Amino acid sequence: MNAVKSYGNIITKNLSDSKKALAYLKLGLNIAGVYLSLFPDRKVPASLQFLQKICVNSIKDYFNYPDNSMWVNIFSPTEILHAMGINPLFIEAYSGFLAGISIEGQLIDAAEAAGISNSLCSFHKVFLGSGELNLLKKCKMSITTSMICDGNIGTFRYLSEKYQTPLYILDIPYEYNKENVNYVKNQLQEMIRNIEEIFGRKLDMDKLKEVIARENQSKELLKKYLENLALKNLSTSMTYELYMLFASHVFLGREETLSFYRMLLEDIQRAPDRRGKGIFFIHVPPLFEKNFIKYFNFSPEFSILGFDLNYDFLDEIELRDPLEGIARKLLLNSYNGSFDRKIALIDMLMEKTRPDGVIHFCHFGCKQALGGIYLLQRYFREKNIPFLTLDGDVIDKKNNQEGQTKTRLEAFLEIIRNR
């Protein structure tokens, strides 16, 4: 039995005593931070090792300083929090961390026992179950957005009421126009006033501009990294690709994130030429599914080229009016508005990465993932790019059909081998 599984078993045995369970969670994160520094995984590029430390430290900071933390979803405008020195806890990442130590089953059961629908996304059920079992530290405030994910608002409202935590919901319209930009900008201004009142500090607009300047620099480096993926093979895994969401979303604009992207570009430029087959993912890769682990993690035959969510907004944010720029970013996200916007992003990514095949893993509970499948199938058929759709669960391991997945995945990979 490996150390991570043993650690998960200890926490499972203490779930009835939330103080003990939280103490073990905090202890494990502190040990992980030290371990990653002393015993780096040499098969992993230096940039991804650094990224892993960023991810672990973000959850450690939440446990150590809950009064200076906020619960957020992946699309929250965290640039404002970074400028104010507030730590965002990215709820989807926290659920992924708990699934990584294999306690997601007990948390999902706790959520469903409390009346949460079994059809809700498991990222949300794990976080809600954490709340039911008191595995969360109360934050001073939380923010979420209405865009893309149907589960966001209900999840945040439920836990906000349970923990008596102020909640601000940003309503992001479907259409992009001047009126809606002003509508979102006005909400951002109101949200900032709420944060200032609750945290007792003022937003410095010059600091916000510094954060956004670093975000723009990070995106330029990310675009250069993208240019190399067609020719180079960076040794990675589905877990590290999901870690990239920290850098591409919630922690954009921080100094350590900019350092990560500089390191990432250096790593891909030094990487060996791409000799095997390249696979691009749409939506979210199934990081715990055994067949995918076998064929893709650090594989010389099938390299992971990335997934579209890490590239959902690559434009520069105007420094002249940072709040208007953030409003535009939210409205123009490729996952917001017409599906044509997502197709346009994917078309650009296909041109840049030149994959040998594309896999869309349709995560259970995510209506957005299922809704555009026909349009994607038509697009890839016209482009003559092999395309596979598989249903399953990224977080809830028991909610996957391992045998069926194996059969369909191996048949797809055989097609790619023979092209």
Helix content: 55-70%
How many strands, which pairing sense, and closed or not: the largest β-sheet? 4 strands, parallel
Q: What spatial form do the alpha-carbon principal axes imply?
A: globular
Return the structural class.
Answer: alpha/beta
Number of strands: 8
Helix/strand order, N-terminal first: HHHEHEHHHEHEHHHHEHEHHEHHEH
Helix count, DSSP H or I runs of 4 or more residues: 18
| Strand residue content | 5-15%
Description:
The structure is a single chain. The protein has 419 residues and is an alpha/beta fold. 57% of the residues lie in helices and 10% in strands. The chain has 18 helices and 8 strands. It has helices at 3-13, 18-38, 46-64, 79-83, 91-100, 104-113, 122-132, 151-163, 178-199, 205-228, 238-250, 255-270, 290-296, 322-331, 339-353, 367-371, 373-383, 402-417, and strands at residues 69-72, 87-90, 141-145, 167-170, 277-283, 302-307, 357-363, 387-392. The strands form 2 sheets. The protein has a 4-stranded parallel sheet with strand order 2-1-3-4, sandwiched between helices. Strands 6-5-7-8 form a 4-stranded parallel sheet, with helices on both faces. Strand 3, helix 8 (151-163) and strand 4 (167-170) form a beta-alpha-beta unit. Helix 6 (104-113) crosses helix 7 (122-132) and helix 7 (122-132) runs parallel beside helix 8 (151-163).
